[in-house]
Fold:
Amino acid sequence: KQARQLENELDLKLVSFSKLCTSYSGTRDGRRDSSDTTPLLNGSSQDRMFETMAVEIEQLLGKLTGINDKMAEYTNSAGVPSLNAALMHTLQRHRDILQDYTHEFHKTKANFLAIRERENLLGSVRKDIESYKSGSGVNNRRTELFLKEHEHLRNSDRLIEETISIAMATKENMTSQRGMLKSIQSKMNTLANRFPAVNSLIQRINLRKRRDSLILGGIIGVCTILLLLYAFH
Structure:
């Protein structure tokens, strides 16, 4: 009987507690519409009601837990048959109800705290926006100019850094190409020094080609002169 009475009280309390948490956000919106200068609900009646109801529900849950423990002790006592299915079923049902009520209470409480934290954050942001809007137009204009100038300086620094990066990459590329050319030249010199006979043969071939070119040119010149003499005589 005590367990059922506490369960009924808890059911009514949890319903009221859930309604309070549901109506919290809507009430906050209505107050913001009526006045933007209304302080946050840290000390409001809804917060006080929330704290009171939370304490009452926690007390009822503690009492119901104690009664369930007493019922469990009774079912485990020596004078009660251990195989009484009705008693075990009743005890398990009360335990399930206690678990459901505890879960629902913690879930509703967590939702309420999350909504209140969100509303507090929104109120703080709103105050910052209002304080910013209430500033003088000259100061705001100067701030905008300073921000634009700062952005221009950042863009200039970025362009300079990109130009320096391109120049450094070009320098590294040219240095790498210079090293490759030096390596090729050193390899060619090594081959020439290692194979002098080949170098001498190449020189002889070049001399013979020059000599053949001179002979061929002389023959063509003589033939041309003879043709001209024959044509004029």
In short: Confidence is low (pLDDT under 50) at residues 30-43.
